[in-house]
Records
---
Amino acid sequence: MHSFGQRANAIATFSLTILAVICSLASFTDNFSAPSPKAEVKVSNFNWLQKQRNGNDEASLTLNISADLQSLFTWNTKQVFVFLAAEYETPKNALNQISLWDKIISSKDLAKFSIRISNKYRFIDQGSNLRGRDYNLTLHWHVMPKTGKMFADKMSMTGFRLPEEYR
Amino acid sequence: MEKAGLPEPITKRRRMGWIRENVDSIRSLQKRQVLTQAVSLGMIVTSALIIWKGLMCVTGSESPVVVVLSGSMEPGFKRGDILFLHMSKDPIRAGEIVVFNIDGREIPIVHRVIKVHERQDTGEVDVLTKGDNNFGDDRLLYAHGQLWLQQHHIMGRAVGFLPYVGWVTIIMTEKPIIKYLLIGVLGLLVITSKE
Amino acid sequence: MDWQGQKLAEKLMQIFLVAFAIVAFVVGYALGSFQAMLLIYAGGVLLTALVTVPNWPAFNRHQLIWLDPSEVDRHPRPQAAASQSLKKKTTKQK
C-alpha cells in the first residue's frame, strides 16, 4: 500500500471481487421468485397439408396465442425468449420438435400479449408422416438474466390432430 | 513512496567495505529474486491450466468457456459476453442454446435450436439452429449441402453467462499490438516489482 | 504515505467498498433495478478511489523520525556489529 500504483491495484482487485459477489447474489435472488405464467394456444385455422417434391410433408396453420408471462420478470431479467413448438412422434423419429413461432420479450410491459399469426417457421416433417398425426403444441420460455444462470420452462397443450388427407 | 533512507556511513575506510558488501548482497538477492519470480510466474501459468482443465472435467465440454463474437443472438448475448458451457448426457431439445462447430469453419457458433428430430431406433438427433437476431435459419452457415447438425458437431450448451468480460479477448485477438503491449508491460512489472 | 497512513487507507478502502456494495444491493433490490445497483456501486468505487488512492496529507501524520547522522557519529559502534546491522537493513529495505 506504499505507492500510488499499489493502492490503485488493491482497490481495482477488491472492487471487482465485490462486484462479482453482488452480481452472483443478485442472480441468487432469482431463486426466490415463484413465477406463475399463463398461456393459451389455439389453432384458429388449418391452411394446408402438402407433400413436397422431395417426399416430405409440410403443413401450414394459423395460431392464436395469448399469454401472460409477466411473473417471469424479476429485477435480474434481461429478456424472455418464448417460442411455440409442435411436438409429435412418428414411426421414424421418437421425437420431433418443430419451432413454429418465437418472440423475444424485452420488458415486463410486453410480456402480456395476444396474437393471431400463421406459422413463422416451416412445419416440415422428415418423411411423409403428417397425415392424421396427433401433435402437441408446447409453449417454451427461456429466461435470460442480466447475469448468472439461465432457466427455462414450458407448458404443453395436447389434443391437436392433423387432417387425414392432403389439402 | 517514502523510502527510509539509509543512515549515511560516515568514515571512508568503512565506506569501501560497505559498498562491497552491499553489492554482494544485491547480487545474491537478484539471483533469488529472479528465481522466485520465475517460480511465481510458473505458479500463475500452471494454476490457470489447472482451472481450465478442471472446468473441462466438470462440464464435460472441450472448451467450457467461450466468448460471443457476433451479434446474432442479440439482445440475449451481446458481443463480448462470456458463456459457460455444459455438456451433459441429456438429449438436445428445441430452445436450448448450443455451441457448435461446422466442418471447415474454425470459429464455433452460438445459436438456438429450433428443430429437433430424434431417431426412434438409434437415438441420433438431427438439429436445426437459428440465431435469435437472424432472419433465417442456419442452413446457409452450414457446410455446403448440410441440412442438419448431428450430435458430434455440438460442443456444449450454454448454461450461464457473464456480460462484457470477453471484450478483453476480443480486443486482444483483433488488435495484436495491444496484446504485445500488455504482455510487455506486465513482464516489465513482474521484473521490476520487488514483492 | 507513512505506516499508519497505509493501514488507515487499507481499512478505509475495505469498509467503504463493502458498505457501498451492501447499500447498492439493497437499493437495487428494493427498486427492482439492476442498473441502480451498478450505478451506486460504481459511484462508491470512484469515491473510495478518490479517498484512498491519492497521498492525502491525512495519511502522513505519523512520519518516522530517523536518527540524525551526527548521532551515529557521536556513538560509533564496533565494526562487525555495524556492518551486520547495515546488511539487515539493506535486505529489509529491498
Note: Residues 87-94 of chain C have pLDDT under 50 and may be disordered.
---
Amino acid sequence: MRIDGKGRIDRTRPVTFRFDGRSYAGYRGDTLASALIANDVRVVGRSFKYHRPRGILTAGPEEPNALVEVVGPANQTPNTRATVQELFEGLVARSQNRWPSLGFDLLEVNDLAAPFLSAGFYYKTFMWPRRFWEGLYEPLIRRAAGLGRLSGKHDEGLYEKAWAHCDLLVIGAGPAGLMAALVAARAGADVILCDESAEPGGRLLADEGMIDGAPAAEWVARVLAELADLPNVRLMRRTTVTGVYDDSTFGALERVGLHRSPRPNLPRECFWRIVAKRSVLAAGALERGIAFQDNDRPGVMMASALATYLNRYGVVPGKRVALFANNDSVRATARSLMAAGVEVAAILDSRPDAPDEPGIVVHKGAVVQRARGRMGLREISFTKDGRAQRLEVECLGLSGGWNPSVHLTCHLNGRPRWSEDLAAFVPMEGAVPGMLVAGAAGGSFSTHGCLASGAEAARASLEALGRAAGAVELPRAEDAPYVIAPLWAVAGKGRAWLDFANDVTVKDVALAAQEGFRSVEHMKRYTTQGMAPDQGKSSNVAALAVLADATGRGIAETGTTTFRPPYTPVSIAAMGAGGRGAGFAPQRFLTSDQASRDRGAPMVEAGLWYRPSYFPKPGETTWREACDREVRMVRESVGVTDVSTLGKIDIQGPDAARFLDLVYTNTFSTLPVGKVRYGLMLREDGHVLDDGTCARLGDQHWLMTTTTAAAGLVMRHLDFVSQAFCAGWQVRFASVTEGWAQFAIAGPKARALVASALGHAPDLPFMGCAPVTVQGVAGRLFRISFSGEEGYELAVPTRYGEALFRDLTARAETMGGGLYGMEALNVLRIEKGFITHAEIHGRITAFDIGMEKMVSAKKDCIGKAAAARPGMTGPARAQLVGLKPLTDSVITAGAHLFAQGVDLVREQSAGYVTSVGYSPTLHSHLALAFLDNGRARHGETVRLVDRLRGVDVLCTVTDPVFHDPKGEKLRA
Amino acid sequence: MRLTCPLCGPRDRREFYYYGAADYLARPAEGAPPEAWDDYLHLRDNPAGVTQDLWYHEQGCCSWLKVTRNTVTHEILAVESVAGADAAEGRA
C-alpha cells in the first residue's frame, strides 16, 4: 500500500513492470520489493526445501526470501534480491522455486512431510543403495530443492572490470561513512566512497532522524553536494565492496546497468579492484529477527525494513501493524508509522522493564508465540504474564537487535569479538591492516556515535597518511543508549525459523547438537544454515546462539563460522569480464595470416598463435589429400611455410658465448661466426627443457631459436640463470620474436627458389648463416632444416613479412612448388625423426631421445649434475623409437605399447606413442614413441593399443629416423 | 597481494610469476656431491612464518625477485632483485 506524501520516490515518473506475468505500476526510485509492497503483493517466493509461501523480510542485501529471476532480452538472472533490484520501465521478474504457480505449488507437499525432512535427512535417507545417488536421488532432490534457473543460453550482456587506487577507501555512506569521507576529503586525501545503495545516506534516509535540528536527509544532501564539488573524491553508488584481500586490495561490484532498461554498450556490472592505502569500514549493521512458531509467514518482516519502506519508498505492507522487539530501536519506527496514519496495534516488548511509549500500547514482558496466515499474516498470538492473547494484524515488525556488519574485517582471517553489552559480535581491532571501523559496524549505534566515530576514523587514517585533519565540528544528533535483553527464540511448539533461505529451524540446530554436530562449523554443514545466497546474514548469530544454548556453552565460546568473500553474490560474468570467446586469451597472428586465409587455409591454434593447417587445392576433399600433396611437394620440389612463431632471442655481449655454454648442454663458444648449431637445454633437474638452433651472427652476437611452445619458458629460464648465477657477466638478451618474419624454404629446389628471391645463388654450407639483401631489404639467411630436405630459413623485419611471403609463394608455384601447412610440417619432421614438445614433454632426459652425447663432459651446464644421476639413463628408461604398423592401419598418439602375448594391463605397458602421421613418402603410417629399452629393440614387433579409440595394431620397432637416415639430402 | 618491485614500484601480484623457494639461488658448484644436489633440487622447508621465495616480474621489468614474506600473516617483509641492486639498475 502506498502512503501519500512519504518516501523519496519520484512520483512524476511512473514505471510499469511485470511480476509473474502480471503488469504492475511503481515509480522511479522504487525497488522491485517496494513496488510489490505498494501493489499489495504479499507472497513473492517459495522456500527452498518446504516450498512454504514467503514474503519480503528485509529492505536490503541480506534478503533471504524475495529472490526472483530477472528476465532480460539477452539473459536471465536468477536469485536477484528484489530488495536490491531497482525498478525500471519494462522490468520483467519471476518468482522462483514453485510449480505451477506461486499461489498453488505442488511441492508444498514437502511441508506436510516436514517431520521427516529435518536436518541431515538427505544424508540419512539417500545413502543406500549407493549407486542410486548420482542417477536418481541427486537429480530428484535438485529438482525439488532449488533456487532460480539460468536461461541455458550464453549471457550476451556486457561486463567490465576496472582498477582504482586511492588514499582512503570509505566503505558505506551512512552517517559514519559520510562523516569519514567528508573529513578526509577536506584534508585533501584522495578518497573513494562506496555505497551499495542507489542513494547514499544509509539509515539516515530510512529513519526519520534529525541532524542539527533538521531532517537528517538535508544533512546528507549538503554533504553529498560538498563531496561532489571536491575533485579528490570519487563517490561510487550502487557499488558493494565484496572482499578484502592482502595488501589493502578490495574487490567491489558496481551495478552499472542493472537498474535501467538494457541498451547497447551499457555494461551490466563492473568488477572493481580497489587498492587503498587506508580504509574505513562503515558498513552499518543488520537487524536480526526472533524465532517463534511460523515466524516466516508473509507479512512478518524486520522492523527496520518497515521503516525503510515507509520513509524511503512510501509504502507499508499492511494497514494494521504490530512490533515485536527486545530493544528500543523499534520505537522510532512505531512513531513514524503512527504519523503516517498506519495503525500500530501494539508493541510487544520482551523486556519486563521496557519503557512506555506515549499513544501506543506496549505489552511489557510479552513474547509472540505464533503467526497465522499461510498466504499472508492475519493474526499473531502472544503470551504476557503467562496469559495467551491474540492480535489481528497484517504485518509484524521484528527486532531481535542488531548485528554489526563485521564481514569484511574477517576476510583476512580475523575473528569477531562477542560483546555482552550489545549482545552482538563486533570487529576485532586490527584484523585488517590499515582498516578502521566506524559507526554501527563497530557497535556505535546512535547517530551521534556514528558521526563521531566516522570523524575519528578519518582523523586517525589521515594521520597514518601523513596528513592533518582540519578542525572537525560534529553535527548535533541523537545519542540514545542501546538497551537490549537478548532473545533469540521463543520456546514453544511447532517450527520456528532461523534461516529462511535454507529452511532451517530452531529444532534443526538443536538436533544437530544432539547428534554430535556441536561445532558451529559442523552445525552449519549438517543443517545447511547460512549456506544460501544470503550466507545467513539475518540468521547466523541467532543460529549459533541457539547452538550455544543447546550445547550449554556461551556464545563467545561457540564462536562464528568463517566469513569469506564475497559479502554479497558476485556474478562470474563480472569477475571474468572480457574473458569470454576471443577475449579468453590474446591472439597472435603471423604476417602471412591474411595471405594464408586468402588461400582457404584452416587456421589452428599453436599456443596463442594461429597457424595454417594446410592449403586446400580445388578437387581435394579431405585434409589428408592436401597434406599428402604438400609432403610430396617438399620432398620432390620446394615448399614454403611461415616459421615466425619460433621464439627468437637476440643475445649479445663479451660473455654471451660463455652464457650459452652454461644454458645449453653442448658447447657453443667454439662455433665460428656465420655458423648455426643445434642445441639442447635441460632443466636443472636433468630433464629436457627445450631444443632449437642458435646462430653466431658476430663475435659477440647470437640469435637463439626456441620452439614455439617454450618461447616464454626459455626467456624466463635465461633471465633466471643470468640474474641468479651470472652476476657481473657482460651479457644482455631480448626477445625479438615479434621483430622478424621468418620463412622456411625446403626441398630439392630450395636453393633455386632462394637464388630467385635473392637474385643470386646462396653460398651457404649446411648449418651456415649470413646477412642477405632481399629485394633491397636487409635480412638474414640460415641454412637449417626441419624437414630433412635441403632447407633455408629467410628472415626479414616483420613489416616486410607479408610481402616476402606472397613473393616466395609466387616464385615457388612457378617452380612446381607451393605452400605447406602445419600438417605437412608435422609429417615431414616425423619422417625425419625430429622431436617437438610432443616428445620433450617434461619427463624426458637427453638419454631418452638419444642425445646423451650432447651433454658435454668438458664444461658445466644447467641440468648436467642431475642428468647424470642413476635412473636418468639406462635400459630401464623408455627411449625414443619409430613405429611402423605391419598392416596399413591407422595408429594414434596416446596409445600404449605392449609386448606380444602379455595382458593388456597398466603394469604391462612398455611405452606410449607421442606423434603419428601418414607418410606419403614411405606409404605407411608412422609413429614416434617411447619404448622401454627401445634402442635395443629395433626390429621387434610390439602391440599398439588405444582403448579409447579402439585401436589394436601390431607394429615394427624402428629407428626414429625413417627418411634419409644419413642426412645426405640435408647436406646436398 | 602486491609486491614492491625494486624497479617498478608496488604492483599487483598478477604481474608476477611465482617460481619456488629462494633455495634455488644457492646452486651447488660443479662436482658437488649428490647429497648437495638432492638438497638443492628437492628438499624444501614449509615454514609457518617467514619464508623466502622467488618471483619473476614477467609482465614488468623481467627481474627475478627474492621475496621475504610471512606465510601466516601474508606480510611482505622485503623484495630484492636477485641480480643485486647494481645489476638491476643496469638492466633498467
Note: The two ends of chain A are 95 Å apart (CA to CA).
